[in-house]
Amino acid sequence: MKSRLFACVVLALSFAALPVLFRAQTPSSDPGLTAHEWGTFTSIAGRDGRAADWLPLTGSTDLPTFVEHFQTPDFKGGLRGTVRMETPVLYFYTNHPLTVSVHVSLSQGLITEWYPHANRVEPVGLQTQTRMISYLQDWSRRQKQPDSSISWDSVALEPSGSPSLPREGRANHYYAARQTSSTPLRIKTQSGEQTEKFLFYRGVAGFSVPVSVRLASDGKMLTQNLNTQETPAMLVFERRGDKLGFRVADASSSGQSTLDPPELNAMMDSLKNAVEDMLIAQGLYQDEAQAMFETWRDSWFEEGSRLLYVVPRQFVDSVLPLSISPAPAQTVRVFVGRLELVTPATQRAVEQALATRDQATLARYNRFLVPILENMIAGEKNVTKKAQLSDYLKNLSNMQLTQNTLN
Fold first, then answer.
1. How many domains does the chain have?
2. C-alpha angle 304/310/314, rounded to 5°?
3. Do 334 and 381 have their domain in common?
4. pLDDT digits 0-9 by tens, 155-208
């Protein structure tokens, strides 16, 4: 009888202790901590309007050499995907010294660059050239890419600090992200301390983006929301030489809208105001919105046509889960989707440049030239012209792959 009573008491005490244990495992929060993040999901629309599979990482790296990456900056040339996750930067704001840990996962993708030094970047085991080549070969064969992640275990936030930040002599758009009032941070590594105003990372992924754009025969753009959440804001942009134009679209609760191409009569100042207002409306501070615009001024508004849209927050959280401990009182995440459009104007410009061997014009389309040609070939009915485009595409693809071969 006594043994049975003792067992019941022990069992009761065990159940009573469970909530305490669970509370102890829950990440603590800090009411004085705020986190803000912005980034870009870059894709190119296929003939069906959805994000197409392409090689988003061709060309030389556009980052300072102190940014870390797998093996070499050029290993990424063989990674095909639907999305180039570009320059997410994570800012912190606190009025007292604090140490935080951060973990980010990327759905169906691979983290490719980061700074400061991270404790773990998954998948592991890609530090040798042989393993990296094998991984790239496996990547191209997979129907669905594996998830990856990055972790910073001990990020020291120093609100009263004024650290010397790394900087190289040549200009780089990376530095524009520092023009905010965010709290400086410091990370200890085996080779010394690294300082920055944010946590930075990039990657490539194979998930489907939440918006599609089909081009109608009359030149209009038919957008469709492929997600259950409403797209907060959209802006269609076009540039031809020195002329540019944009049109801000109303977010449609029905999930579909028809956009007219913009007239090419806008000025950069008016575009800057429209984009920054769009970002601030989603929760970014004014200096953060300005930093994001300046970071992507040259890329977002280069030659061609594209749709810029604010990615729904729930979608961002689903494909890019973020965990911060202690948990901030507020976390704002503003991601802009960039969907490149192969419009008739773009096709005419590429055809003319190919005919006249105008390499300067072709270079304006940069990393998008291969998928643009693939799109044009798929829709070309003239056998001779199709063969010519295919030959140029083959040569261009070989050249890009050669430039990105592992050393």
1. 2
2. 140
3. no
4. 999 999 888 999 998 999 999 999 999 999 999 999 899 999 999 999 999 999
